[in-house]
Queue: 2 jobs
Job 1
Amino acid sequence: MELNLQSHNLVETDFKEIIYKLQPCLDKSGNPVEGLFNAWIYLNNPKQYNSYTTSAVKEIIFAFRQASNDRSVVAVVFTAVGDKSFCTGGNTKEYAEYYSGRPLEYKQYMRLFNDMITSILHCDKPVICRVNGMRIAGGQEIGMACDFTVATDLAIFGQAGPKHGSAPDGGSTDFLHLFVGIERAMQSCVLCEMWTAYQAKQFGLITDVIPVLKVDGDFIRNPMVVTDQWVDQSGEIIYGKKKRGESMKAGKDILTRGEIDLTPLDNAVNDLCTKLLYLMPDCTSKTLNSMRKKKLEHWDQNQQTNRDWLALNMMTEAKAGFRAFNEGPRENREVDFIKLRQMLAEGHAWDDELLDAILPG
């Protein structure tokens, strides 16, 4: 007997700024399973490092709702196209050219952003963040809303808020300390220090790290993560032979010779999806929701007041910071911090004179 099943999607969405596709689940032998899928949601803005526009945020919300409602979906993979970036956060061009100086407009945008985070945290299916490159700023925040993270070892993780006129109040100030502890969260959120994928794994931020750099037919670990060691041209680590500068140069040489192949990353993600396939679906969903309470406890308490502050900040430091990043030369996309502090210490108002004085030339 054929059932006439109800659709619980709010609307049927034609995705234009993201990619949504179903990929067959694989059993333990690696064979496709009939009628069961994993939903892959791709950010698709590689020219701007997969930053999300307002339109993309709307589509992400609908995509997670659709994947959550799809009876045939086992797990959701949240990722992006290319091999340079998972996501660098909100689209700074849009921020600088439209939202800067418009707090009421940005407040409405932040409602959408908050709904995007909530749609991940409320998804009825387990969510895996497949990190194919940089996971920075808002990209870090949407990534931490996911349940698992599998990353290439070329990825970097971090925040950029206080450097570019914002605060990481889209999730990092709520979630990051739950992963790495308060001191390391301070280093990331306040000082904007970046972490390699191996550091992120060591700190407890992510689930797994996968080498994807292929040199002479073999996959090798990221040669740029070596600090007190030196890597020779074959990729072998030799201790105590060279200084750090020579080590970095050798690493760059290896990167230049190699090619990035994300097949091992996809295999690791599919392996995790297969593990999830062999679990009771309702028990899995209940366990996810119980674990997510720790994130939601902070998120639900702070999201609205953070939204209010972030909107007002578009009249001051965000207005300056996003314009500096969008308009400044490639080698300098930050405001003159010392000049800013000096003028504020003198009681100068946040006006066009101050803005012109601190923007990069």
Note: Residues 227-243 have pLDDT under 50 and may be disordered.
Job 2
Amino acid sequence: MPNAKDKVTLKIPRPLYDRLKHIIGDSGFSSVNEFVVYVLRDLVSMGFDDSKELTKEETEAIKQRLKNLGYF
């Protein structure tokens, strides 16, 4: 089980937090934090190799997913 030193705080705009809280509703996620961690893990697991630069298509895919989450 992770301890407090294994976590950091990520600040997001309140309107985005409120929107995510509404979105997760009865989805089974117990909190916005749990949902955000799930989404970020999914994004990272898409197979991006951090030892190389992202292609234009990969960058656009990330931007689109972030836009869908309300960041743009």
Note: The longest helix spans residues 32-44.
